[in-house]
Specification:
The complex is a heterodimer of chains A (288) and B (275). By secondary structure, chain A is of the alpha/beta class. Chain A is built from twelve helices and ten strands. In chain A, the strands form two sheets. Chain A has a six-stranded mixed sheet with strand order 6-7-8-3-9-10, with helices on both faces. In chain A, a hairpin with a 2-residue loop joins strand 9 (214-219) and strand 10 (222-228). In chain B, helix 4 (116-130) packs across helix 5 and helix 5 (145-157) packs parallel to helix 6 (175-192). Classes of the chains: A alpha/beta (288), B alpha/beta (275).
């Protein structure tokens, strides 16, 4: 699915003394199957942007097109488009309310009035997609699950709607390091299996580096950077100017470079940075 | 002299749909006055349950928790225990109750019958300690997440505690908010000698503490300074945890034959060791 935001603007409480512009004219295009990270400091407008992209908010000005169809509004075409975009807010497990895992994940597909056999098939597929075994999980109460399992059940509920676009807002927040890696790997596997579009809102460089290839930086309601993840995240001056820090790997590589090490500074993961430092170290040694 | 907080044989179990869940299974731990302890562990390891025992929000199923010599199971001690040990939680929006910042900070004090002038002075001092003097009359909901946590910390400080327990206070904050809150708490610890128990999933934050305690399945499995807890990384991974990013780089470089000392967890330390 092709997503286009054109001159997109959004103001909270327009026409009142409390009017607060959150987005001021944003143009962005996200192609089918792209993996995009959205970054920005608190209050930058990034949450507003993803809610507009999912058609949950109607823009104050400009528009969002999903495969050419306006995302907001009440037409059947707009509704059909929105259904193809799945959005998981932060801490999605807080919105779990059904008494069993099966019913929780089946909630969306049932609202589509699918035949029960199809609902069951979708629930099993979605649970497997997030790494939960349907046979042992389906009849359990979500309340009896660990925090990490509840998070995965909530995400399965989104996947069961079979979206073509998946928007995740800090999907791994609060998870321990192993749970974090596992969840990200599952989301990546979903993206590869359905060739879906993945939009990840996150402050976590490690999450971004493992999941997306393009970064869009939002600040003061505008897009201030848009490009390959490595390039955007290694531009420490621009990041600092909008109140974000460069990743620690980049800061370290830049310090070494200033000290005369022949290193590239756009390595984001610890293993990449270590490889780069070791390579440069051998060069320095060979040069005596 | 006995330690400030003494935990002996602490067990805690609760009932979930008729099933008994053992959240803490025999914890022995002491925390001294003025210490800065990071508490880490995978999801479900018992960190929050342990934290809630430190000021009597939860009471032991077996064993004992003493704060400044007072056992938390004696209801007569609860007020004194809670004055000494303040709690700050993860979600800033769930902790703020009043319509202005200063009323919020004063809220706890109004329940312990202090004279108004004393309340005024303590609120002003607490707001100064967290750097929010200029926000006295602001509505808390207009503040950033980091600032809301600063207000929550000021509310705890106003009671003049000897210890603050913070349960993943940075989990919902952006990086500047995280740094702001961590810097504030480190400064309160260093300048005012307030003991800190800092619960986190960020190994980077934990590496900044002098002492790290790791929980796993309701037990203390590691306890010591960061280098001792974070190395070897294989042991950490087996517990569902990981090295901080810089520590991981140093570890990988050592594996490739570079001669580096242990305990390198910050960019500055690793850059210095390499150059």
């Amino acid at each position: 699915m092709l997503i286009q935001a054109q001159q997109l603007a959004y103001t909270y409480a327009p026409g009142t003394p409390l009017a607060r512009p959150a987005l001021r004219g944003v143009d962005v295009e996200i192609g089918p199957g792209e993996r995009v990270g959205i970054l920005g400091p608190t209050g930058s407008g990034k949450s507003t942007l993803v809610q507009l992209l999912a058609g949950l908010l109607a823009p104050t000005a400009g528009r969002v097109l999903l495969d050419g169809v306006a995302a907001h509004g009440h037409s059947a075409a707009a509704r059909a488009c929105r259904r193809r975009v799945g959005l998981a807010f932060q801490y999605p497990e807080e919105q779990i309310f059904e008494p069993t895992v099966f019913r929780e994940v089946a909630f969306g597909p049932r609202r589509l009035r699918l035949p029960e056999a199809q609902v069951e098939e979708r629930v099993r597929w979605a649970l497997q997609m997030v790494g939960l075994e349907p046979a042992t999980m389906e009849q359990r109460s979500p309340l009896s699950l660990s925090g990490g399992e509840m998070r995965r059940v909530a995400l399965a509920g989104v996947l069961a709607m079979q979206p073509q676009v998946l928007i995740l807002d800090e999907p791994a927040a609060g998870l321990d390091p192993q749970g974090r890696r596992e969840l990200l790997a599952r989301m990546r596997a979903w993206q590869e299996q359905v060739n879906g579009t993945l939009i990840l809102v996150s402050h976590n460089v490690d999450d971004l580096a493992r999941l997306v290839e393009r970064a869009v930086v939002v600040a003061h309601g505008r897009i201030v950077a848009d490009g390959p993840l490595r390039r955007v995240l290694s531009d420490s001056e621009r990041l600092r100017a909008v109140g974000l820090d460069a990743p620690q790997t980049v800061t370290l590589l830049q310090a070494l470079r200033r000290a005369g090490w022949p290193v590239r500074t756009d390595r984001l993961l610890p293993e990449e940075a270590a490889g780069e430092i070791a390579r440069a170290g051998r060069l320095l040694e060979a040069a005596g | 002299m006995a330690a400030f907080i003494e935990i002996r044989g602490l067990e805690y179990a609760y009932d979930l749909h008729g099933r008994r869940v053992a959240a803490l299974q025999g914890i022995d731990l002491t925390i001294e006055r003025g210490e800065f302890v990071a508490l880490i562990g995978p999801n479900g390891s018992g960190k929050s349950t342990l934290a809630r025992h430190l000021n009597g929000l939860l009471l032991p199923t077996a064993g004992e928790v003493r704060v400044d010599g007072l056992t938390t199971t004696d209801p007569r001690h609860l007020q004194a225990v809670r004055q000494q040990v303040g709690m700050v939680f993860q979600n800033p929006d769930n902790q703020l109750v009043a319509s202005t910042v200063e009323e919020d900070v004063a809220f706890g004090l109004e329940n312990i019958a202090l004279p108004p002038a004393e309340i005024r002075q303590r609120v002003d001092q607490a707001l100064a300690s967290v750097g929010l003097q200029g926000y006295r009359t602001h509505p808390p909901q207009m503040l950033s997440g980091g600032q809301k946590q600063q207000v929550a910390i000021a509310g705890v400080l106003a009671a003049r505690p000897a210890c603050i327990v913070l349960d993943e206070p940075t989990a919902m904050l952006d990086p500047p908010g995280r740094q702001r809150v961590l810097a504030l708490v480190r400064q309160l610890n260093a300048a005012e000698g307030i003991a800190v128990v800092w619960i986190t999933q960020s190994m980077e934050e934990a590496a900044a503490a002098r002492r790290v305690v790791a929980l796993h399945a309701g037990r203390v499995v590691l306890d010591g300074p960061p280098p001792q807890v974070f190395e070897p990384p294989e042991r950490l991974q087996a517990l569902g945890l990981a090295l901080p990013p810089v520590g991981e780089i140093a570890h990988r470089l050592r594996a490739q034959g570079l001669d580096l000392p242990g305990g390198l967890f910050t960019v500055e330390a690793l850059a210095r060791a390499l150059c």
